[in-house]
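Can anyone check this?
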Amino acid sequence: MQTTESVKPALYNMPTDLTPTIQMDFHALNDLKSKMSDSGYVEYIWHKVYDNKNAEFEGAEKHTSWEFPECWRARYWLNYILHGNIFKDKSVLEIGSLFNFYSVWSVLSGAKSVHAIEPHQERFELAKEYVKIRNMSENIVTDNTSIEDYMKHYNGAKYDIVFFQDVMYYLHNPIEVIHFISKVLKPKHLFLETSVCDDFGDDGHFMLHKPNETKMDEHQIWEKEIKSSLTPSRNALRNLINMYDWKIITYYDYKDFIGHGVSPPRKAGRKDYYVLERKE
């Protein structure tokens, strides 16, 4: 496996103006309330997480009280409405797949296969069940492994698309993972989203994050397992992207999303979303 020691940074200027290429389409998000019709499957998984871990699936029609929050619809719109054409007949690696919700949506958007990796045992088991009840076991393979172990035992597999969304700020080695994606996996497209912190200057920096268990809410019930991790500033993230010479297809900074949704970082506008294309 290559390491960060072999990085040869490309020549670039430090960013001073991180202007987003798009704005959120809130009318489209409202339309998705009726168009995203598979909330019953997701509600069943939440039912197993919070209410009855021994529940058995009896049909999506049995679960009708939950609907997709605005922040979920926002990322769905970003991934599959704006960029749905990217997925046709493509292979996808999803790093940190949680319950494989996005693995399934990738297949529904045309992907021929998804390899998902999820380190948490309980999430992994529920992810496999979710794929099964969606009848996609032939298209989606999930491994119970961390990105660190995946890199250590990498077998040379190649993918057209890599998902690295809402994972980076849980890691102690995010630069190494970005290097691995960029220089070893070399996908055609990288979907990158992460929480970010404020910048002190153009160089950017990483902030040490140590979760406070007293502040955990239902959306972060597993974060207590993270002892420490590194959250990038916006400029640090952009400088990494430039260093590996990615072409930016889409950049969205969530600043027009402030006050929306239930996800604290999105509601505060502290997220960066990129779709990147590898330069030939």
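Reply from J.R.: I decoded it. Residues 1-5, 213-224 have pLDDT under 50 and may be disordered.
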